[in-house]
Amino acid sequence: MTVLHLADEGEAADLAAFLSRLLHYDRGAAVRLQAAGTALAVFGRPPSFEVLAIRAVRLAKPYEHGLDVTLDVTVSAGELLESVVEDAATAGVPAAVTGPPWAGVLPPRGGWQPVAGLPAPDALRAMVGAGVAEFRSRTGELAPESRTRAELDRIGREIWSRTVGDTQLPVRAVHAAQSLGFLRPGGELALFSSGAWLRLRTPYGSIAVRRAGLGALDVSVR
Predict the structure, then answer these.
(1) pTM of the entire structure?
(2) Helix, coil or strand: residue 50
(3) What distance in Å separates the CA atoms of residue 151 and residue 103, rounded to the nearest whole number?
(4) How far apart are CA 30 and CA 217, in angstroms?
């Protein structure tokens, strides 16, 4: 098994936490790993949010068993989590799996430009809290016969599809960032765009989302 040597125990713990949160939303979650040199990107898609979550992991050194140039593979998130040894700051790369459709369409590597208009972190957290409270209030007011999955989904889409500040970033991207542990206090947040994609970057990870109405333009299939 290919062994990844992570930069330190903290990186291993953060990777394990990220994988655990993905598995909370999808016990059969897969993640796509891409790495070169001492940088590893872990891509996941929590189904509740319709976004891509990206966790950057620092490696202490490239890989064992002769794999010393690049790594690009889709694996089981659960098997990867089981292979993480926090004390040793290592993780084994499980056998490849047939990736879900999203794993073949990732945000572009370059061309990212800053986007103005992102509210302050406290305001973003408050926005998510208000959205959760509104969802609970509106669904709680439904009559039992109206409390269907379709109606709950409709209310959720209405709330989480709203945009953030003066940007096109949907609130669901911020909700995903908070739910996955990316919106912790400390550090600077920034918003970027490239083609059809928006990316909310935090010190703990990024959330990428396709902007509505742009169809299949500017995707990176790789």
Answers:
(1) 0.88
(2) coil
(3) 29
(4) 25
Tokens 């709680």 — which residue? 140
- Position of tokens 């209310």? 155
Beta-bridge partners for 72: 34
Residue 77, helix vs strand vs coil: helix
**What is d(CA 130, CA 169) in angstroms, rounded to the nearest whole number?**
17
Q: Which two tokens stand for residue 42?
A: 């872990």
Residue 10 parent element (H or E): helix 9-25
Amino acid letter, 161: S
Q: Which two tokens stand for residue 131?
A: 């959205």
- Range list of H helices, 26-148: 77-83, 121-140
pLDDT tens per residue across span 103-132: 988 999 889 999 999 999 999 999 999 999
